[in-house]
């Protein structure tokens, strides 16, 4: 697994924990970072931090976009893993600059396949494909 893939998985773990606890993702990131440094002597990959901070900064707009492109799903009713996989991938697709779109979508689909329901990979792929298709016409604040 590449360093970027591991960073995405760690970011998903933080976003999931924050969502379940109804906590600020930045607070959870700080707690997780402290635990890992104490327990394992490891700092988080910078990309993990960038992803969590980016999703936190743009979460309201990301949720609006995901809900709009999920065809009839309200974001609060989505499985917690799916909603956070979509948040993470939508952030990378819309505000990220380094990773190819196909890699972002493929890894999001794989995470949903590994961690969520049987229907999740198709759902995640469909939502992200629609987001990608509409990206040129979206208004995004920096």
Written account of the structure:
The chain has about 140 residues and is mainly alpha-helical. It has a single domain (about 5-135), classed as Orthogonal Bundle (N-utilizing Substance Protein B Homolog, Chain A). Helices cover about 75% and strands about 0% of the residues. The protein contains six helices and no strands. The chain is globular. The N and C termini lie far apart (about 30 Å).
Question: What descriptive keywords fit this protein?
Answer:
N-utilizing Substance Protein B Homolog, Chain A, single chain, 142 residues, globular, mainly alpha, 6 helices
Tertiary shape: globular
What is the string of SSEs from the N terminus onward?
HHHHHH
Helicity, as a percent range: over 70%
- Indicate the mean pLDDT: 90
User: Could you say what the CATH topology is called?
Assistant: N-utilizing Substance Protein B Homolog, Chain A
**SS content category:** mainly alpha
Number of extended strands: 0
Q: Under the CATH scheme, which class?
A: Mainly Alpha
Which CATH-level-2 architecture? Orthogonal Bundle
- Under CATH, the homologous superfamily reads NusB-like
List the domain count as a whole number. Answer: 1
The major beta sheet can be summarized as: none
Radius of gyration, in angstroms, nearest whole number: 14 Å
How many helical stretches?
6
End-to-end distance, in Å? 31 Å
- What portion of residues belong to β-strands? under 5%
């Amino acid at each position: 697994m590449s360093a970027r893939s591991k960073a995405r998985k760690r970011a998903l773990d933080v976003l999931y924990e924050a969502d379940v606890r109804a906590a600020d993702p930045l607070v959870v990131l700080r707690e997780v970072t402290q635990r890992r440094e104490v327990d394992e002597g490891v700092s988080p990959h910078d990309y993990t931090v960038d992803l969590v901070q980016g999703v936190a900064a743009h979460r309201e707009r990301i949720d609006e976009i995901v809900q709009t492109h999920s065809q009839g799903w309200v974001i609060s009713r989505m499985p917690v893993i799916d909603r956070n996989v979509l948040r993470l991938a939508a952030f990378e697709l819309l505000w990220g600059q380094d990773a190819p779109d196909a890699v972002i979508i493929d890894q999001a689909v794989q995470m949903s396949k590994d961690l969520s329901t049987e229907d999740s990979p198709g759902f995640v792929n469909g939502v992200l494909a629609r987001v990608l298709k509409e990206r040129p016409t979206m208004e995004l604040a920096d």
